[in-house]
Amino acid sequence: MKKSILILFPGVRYSADCPLLYYTRLGYSYAGFEYLVADYGEKESEDLGIFADKAVKNIKKQFEKLELDSYKEIIFAEKSVGTVIGMRIEDELNLKNVYHIVYTPIEETFKYLSKERKIIGMAAGTEDKHMDIKAITATCKKLETELVVIKNSGHRLEAGKDVTADISALVKVINKIGDPSAFEKYKKAEEKKIEDAQKAAKEKAEAEKAAKEKAAKAEAAKKAVEEKAKEIKKASDGIKPNKKHVRKFIPDDIEELMELWLISNVKEQSFIPKKYWNKNFNEIRRIVELSEVFVYEENSKILGFISSMEAELVGIYVAEGFRSKGIGKLLMEKMKDKMGILEASVYTKNKKAMAFFDKEEFQATSIRIDEATGEEEVLLRW
């Protein structure tokens, strides 16, 4: 691949040897760039449109043998009507990797400006009669392009009264957009934009993938729940509770009983945080193992159990899908026969439990606040 190249596009009466283009060429030459001055053919014209058309035609002939696309980087330094000519050349020759330094664009330049075009920066004077400074300021802001504004200067970026001020303005413009360091800064910024865009695209793709996976898992979980519900319903439909299925607790039952205890409390008493039930799991297990317990078992599956420490009821639980079939009633009858007297505490928010104990003819004796949960509970007695 060849070296990088700088191509100068002068204005009608602003040659490649005038300050802006001269010092731009000098800086890029020091940086190792080849350079070329675009040959317009004609030198002057009253009609800039006709002038640009002829210039483009001549330049295309000039560039035919250059193989510009073989260059690593192509910098167009354009002045005045040269800004139009340079951008037209880029488009008509379909050149790649072209970067523009735009000095004092004219009204016609607006037609060729877009975010897709690589513009290192623009420079304009506040007193330029060929371009409205407010318009170019708004355009550069929209395009996110560096704009160097020289106050009290015209189309040549010279005030014409103070040479020192003109030189200072020239230095400012070259430093900001005409020096190779400005080009390197622009490239790094563009690379950062591309990197950020790629990162954002990757994150978006990963987020979309994660969302799809989450949705798929949710759908699978939903189907699993539905299938489980169907299985439970099928098993439940064949259940006809019989007291012969009520038996005494044996140590091997404890795992199934505690699983039923945890699942039931987490779901039916969701007004209490799950961590409360997890925290008390081992303590309740110890109490159950020491208390009087009856289980309801059918087809080798424990469907419910009741536990009481002397007359104080520890709890009564029936598996979801098998409730309201009489299993709880059979368990309660067994415990009533065993104890003769039963006491229980029920959270008032647990409406289903309150209704069950009401049917079992338990009577409220008092109401209190459970210190462990902060929830109101009713003390019941049978």
Secondary-structure blueprint of this entry?
Elements: E1 5-9, H1 19-30, E2 34-37, H2 48-63, E3 74-79, H3 81-92, E4 98-103, E5 118-125, H4 133-143, E6 147-150, H5 163-178, H6 180-237, E7 246-248, H7 254-268, H8 274-290, E8 292-298, E9 301-309, E10 312-318, H9 327-339, E11 343-347, H10 351-359, E12 363-369, E13 376-381
Helix pairs in contact: 1-5, 2-3, 5-6, 7-8
How would you describe the overall organization of this protein?
The strands form 3 sheets. This protein has a 6-stranded parallel β-sheet, with helices on both faces. Helix 1 packs across helix 5, helix 5 runs parallel beside helix 6 and helix 7 packs antiparallel against helix 8. The protein contains 10 helices and 13 strands. The model has no long low-confidence stretch (mean pLDDT 92). With 382 residues, it is α/β, with parallel strands linked by helices. Helix content is 47%, strand content 20%.
The total of helices stands at 10
Q: Give the overall pLDDT as a whole number.
A: 92
Strand order of the largest sheet: 2-1-3-4-5-6
Ends: how far apart?
Answer: 97 Å
Describe the global form: rod-shaped
Measured on Cα atoms, how large is the radius of gyration?
43 Å
Multimeric organization? single chain
Q: How many strands, which pairing sense, and closed or not: the largest β-sheet? A: 6 strands, parallel
User: How much helix, percentage-wise, in residues?
Assistant: 40-55%
Number of DSSP strand runs: 13
- What order do the helices and strands follow? EHEHEHEEHEHHEHHEEEHEHEE
Q: Which structural category fits the helices and strands? A: alpha/beta
Instruction: Note the beta-strand portion.
Output: 15-25%
